[in-house]
């Protein structure tokens, strides 16, 4: 077994008007005594002033020596001054640069992985950001020269569940047309490989959820299960992956909680996120699978109201930091 030295995690500042600065400072207070969870944040030092002692660093490796005493901040230029709770589109270029820099640190093995603070997607779209979210943007940044971007898979971890998504930020009406047997096979392979590599499960058991009520009742109330999902499950089983046919969406998460499955692949964003957020509103983590770098995130958004009121909770960010560190450890042990 190879053991490479631990690296700090790179946190992005996220939307500076959102909860990111407050939860980052709060996470530092709670984690500063755990050197295995050392991190630095890429952002404007002023964002954290008054919430934590701040130390500017000039390279990711400086964070390890600083973390116990102060929040290590790698300064990002040109972050406009914003008010908590007051989104400001002029911050968009800096928000995007922080994500790009953190990803480059992880790709260069200067950071063990990246943990992204929440962004306001509509605000970024309004300034021309061409990606649905971090998931697809980080994948784009991970593309090798001349090669297509790796296919990223969003998985939520929380409340005793792991739930990967077959479709993410698309209209519900577009979901049936977006489901495709070959794509579900590729998705199942990515989820199975990640559960082994990053979560230490030698032979993970995975379930597809159905799209239609009762998983389509044998094609009588929707045929995506018999036409698309079950054929993908069959092909995955032929590849040696323990994959169920489509299970009814109203029971598959209870089955997973009871121990029948290590992960569920949900067909839509809300089908997957509702059980995780209902079971674990504060502690859920969003993980991107299928990338050469570790990337996690809190599963909540910018929470402008909590940012303005000073009531933002760091629980989900802390869970995201813990999970990223565990995944980075697993990859260091078996690169
Ligand atoms: N990973 C990311 O960057 C994500 C970004 N978003 C973005 O967040 C923005 C706001 O989305 P919403 O649907 O309002 O979801 P939200 O998660 O920001 O807020 C929903 C409710 O939960 C509360 N809440 C969320 N996190 C909290 C925390 N840490 N502490 C205390 N209260 C908290 C909020 O105050 C609000 O009442 C959107 O622009 C969306 O694009 C949403 C989800 C993930
Ligand atoms: N609802 C989850 C979400 O919006 C996270 O998206 P991403 O920014 O992690 O791609």
UniProtKB/TrEMBL annotation:
Cite the binding residues for a divalent metal cation: 169, 214, 269
Q: Which prosthetic group or cofactor does it need? A: Zn(2+); Mg(2+); Co(2+)
Chief location bin = cytoplasm
Q: Does the keyword Cell wall biogenesis/degradation apply?
A: no
Gene Ontology MF: a single term: 4-hydroxythreonine-4-phosphate dehydrogenase activity
Q: How does it assemble?
A: Homodimer.
User: What is the protein name for this chain?
Assistant: 4-hydroxythreonine-4-phosphate dehydrogenase
Q: What's the encoding gene here? A: pdxA
């Amino acid at each position: 077994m190879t053991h490479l030295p631990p690296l700090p995690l790179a946190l992005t500042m996220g939307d500076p008007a959102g909860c990111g600065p407050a939860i980052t400072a709060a996470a530092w207070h709670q984690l500063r005594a755990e050197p295995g969870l050392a991190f630095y944040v890429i952002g404007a030092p002023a964002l954290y002033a008054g919430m934590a002692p701040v130390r500017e660093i000039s390279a990711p490796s400086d964070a390890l020596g600083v973390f116990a005493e102060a929040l290590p901040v790698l300064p990002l230029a040109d972050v406009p001054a914003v008010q908590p709770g007051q989104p400001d589109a002029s911050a968009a270029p800096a928000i995007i640069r922080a994500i790009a820099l953190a990803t480059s640190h992880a790709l260069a093995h200067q950071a063990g992985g990246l943990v992204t603070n929440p962004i306001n997607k509509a605000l970024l779209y309004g300034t021309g950001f061409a990606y649905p979210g971090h998931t697809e943007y980080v994948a784009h940044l991970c593309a090798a020269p001349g090669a297509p971007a790796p296919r990223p898979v969003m998985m939520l971890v929380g409340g005793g569940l792991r739930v990967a998504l077959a479709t993410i930020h698309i209209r519900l009406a577009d979901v049936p047309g977006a489901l495709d047997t070959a794509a579900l096979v590729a998705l199942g392979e990515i989820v199975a490989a990640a559960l082994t590599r990053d979560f230490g499960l030698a032979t993970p058991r995975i379930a597809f959820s159905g799209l239609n009520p009762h998983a389509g009742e044998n094609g009588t109330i929707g045929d995506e299960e018999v036409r698309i999902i079950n054929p993908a499950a069959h092909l995955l089983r032929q590849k040696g992956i323990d994959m169920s046919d489509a299970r009814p969406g109203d029971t598959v998460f209870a089955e997973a909680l009871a121990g029948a499955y290590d992960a569920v692949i949900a067909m839509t964003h809300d089908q997957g996120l509702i059980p995780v957020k209902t079971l674990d509103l504060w502690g859920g983590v969003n993980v991107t699978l299928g990338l050469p770098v570790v990337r996690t995130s809190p599963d909540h958004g910018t929470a402008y109201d909590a940012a303005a009121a000073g009531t933002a909770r760091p629980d989900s960010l802390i869970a995201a930091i813990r999970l990223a560190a565990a995944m980075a450890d697993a990859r260091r042990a078996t690169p």
